[in-house]
Design brief:
alpha+beta; 8-stranded mixed β-sheet; binds the ligand O=C(O)[C@@H](O)C(=O)COP(=O)(O)O; binds zinc ion; Aldolase_II/adducin_N_sf
Length: 210
Amino acid sequence: MSEQQQKIDLVNLARSLFERGYSVGGAGNISLRLSGNRFLVTPTGSSLGRLKAEDLSVLDSDGNLLEGKKPSKESVFHLAMYQRNPACNAIVHLHSTYLTALSCLDNLDPSNAINAFTPYYVMRVGKLPVIPYYRPGSPEIARELSERALDGKAFLLANHGVVVCGSDLFDAVDNTEELEETAKLMFLLKGQNVRYLTDDEVNDLKNRGK
Ligand SMILES: O=C(O)[C@@H](O)C(=O)COP(=O)(O)O
Ligand SMILES: [Zn+2]
């Protein structure tokens, strides 16, 4: 796929997320791995609904700006995750409503904020480790995500939002949408007698995915 097409796909998918309410204002950022150890990142302060292909930031692996506008203040954590996990080729960070609400709850299990109650959550994401709260843009988020980048595809940033990886941009967006839907169901089911999937059921889904 040409680099221009990758930029167009990013602009279109970001707009689609924005138009469907997954992101508001200037919140969130998206990136993907380009060829030659370079990375495409959304510019800082930009609305995901109004990106322009020519404005997207192109960075080298040290974070030097090669093309486009000043990158997201979270580009440090995006680059740290790419460096640590070669299977991660795209990253979506959102403040989507239900996942962000979940991120604000006290006493979440740091190893997994959502226990599986649907197969698709297991097949797409599986578990949701929690990164403690740090100021947005702080190097501690990058350090924690880098340390845990091989622990899963998605991470909840406490009191902030979510970070989701994919094998490509379409996969990362699909994983994010599934995760947001799962968090929404979790709130809808609050106080109900939920039947969680058993360990055997979860393992069966994971084994079929291999
Ligand atoms: O929450 C924040 O401030 C950032 O994590 C964010 O979502 C938007 O920052 P930029 O990508 O620098 O606009
Ligand atoms: Zn954020």
